[in-house]
Amino acid sequence: MPADPNPRHDPYAPFRLPDYRRLVAMAFLTAIVQQAQSVAIGWDIYERTGSALALGWAGLAQFAPIAAFFLPAGQIADRHDRRRVIAASLGLWSVSALLLAAASHLDAHVGWIYAAIVGTGASLVVNRAARDAMVPKIVPAAYLQNAVAWNMSIFQVALVTGPALAGVVIAVTHSATAVYVTNLVCLVAGAWMALSIEHRFVGDTQRPGTLRELFAGVEHVWRTKAALGMMSIDLFAVLLGSVTALLPIYAKDILHVGPGGLGWLAAAPALGAVVMGITQGVRRSWPHAGRAFMWGVAVYGVATIVFGLSRSFWLSLAMLVVLGAADNASAVIRQTVLQLRTPDVLRGRVSAVNRVFISSSNELGAFESGLLASLTSPTFAVVLGGIATLVIVGGGVKLFPEIGRMRSLDRE
């Protein structure tokens, strides 16, 4: 019987590091804000317009600044103190939250909501590039997968809490204003937590940046085929299989469960992700990481199809839980591969590239599903997206054989 290759494996080692605890606390607050804001905006826009396409435009509004600024955002994270970069991004996000609160309270034109969403998108791409790049400097490589899994688990706990609380607050107050005001307070607290992190990364701010340095993250991802394949498969799977933007329609017009039900539907994927995240947090690396990634994306597609066809609130809720668990399994593998195969001097830029891939799938996916639902029906849009996800998995196996052969997360 072979010897245990890692007899001292400690799945809770990341929590013994003060900087990691501070970073996770900040991430927890901002995750609550992001998800509560998403639910509030979705309900706010649909109540004002009654339009599926209007919900789709919200996703596009958030994606536009991410696509425009991801390259400079990554370079900023690699050239400056990442703590201060995070704090500054949360300051910008606070301005957007204040604008949302004012627009909601004054019942202003829906265009003001879209303007605030653009500001949120700009702050998110800067925030996540710096935040993702900090983790490998805080946590030793031997525990990085555990740290990524725990980070996502805690993030997903916030994703359960944020939408559920937002749904309850909107149901009680019949307005999204209170959600936006609470978010503003949380963002200010998050900025303070970011600045309290003792770890510092100070890049080379004296040497002038070049165009090649700006695109260095893109070049690194292109050369790292396993990471490129995982990011591409995840991009197109979530882009075509996203159901998030249509949840207000399902809650109000298909499942007839109102804003309270919307909160639980929005929180259900995070609940599944929490269970899967804890499982991955306490276990060692997947013995066949590439296959596990592919199976995760495939299960995501199947759960999406069943959700689209369901007319039962409980079945729909269950499928969203499964969908979230599958997504988390593949996301932890993808994120760990990306972090372990990237040198620290490039982590900000590579994290920004990763973030634009994720945002492309989430925000453009929201626009795609909203547009398709407005031209056909919500059910058709969701089911077609699930089928497309399964097709993408099959194509990904052929286009990126490196993933199928992958065992170790840190080597090609």
Q: Could you describe the 3D structure shown?
A:
There is one protein chain. This protein has 412 residues and is mostly helical. It has a single domain (13-200, 213-405), classed as Growth Hormone, Chain: A (Up-down Bundle), CATH 1.20.1250.20. It is built from 16 helices and no strands. It has helices spanning 18-49, 52-79, 82-105, 110-138, 144-173, 177-195, 211-214, 216-223, 225-241, 247-254, 258-282, 289-309, 313-340, 347-375, 378-399, 401-405. Residues 1-7 have low confidence and may be disordered.
Which spans have pLDDT < 50 for at least 5 consecutive residues?
A: 1-7
In CATH, the homologous superfamily goes by the name MFS general substrate transporter like domains
Range of helix content? over 70%
Architecture, CATH level 2? Up-down Bundle
Largest sheet: none
| Radius of gyration from the alpha-carbon trace, in angstroms | 20 Å
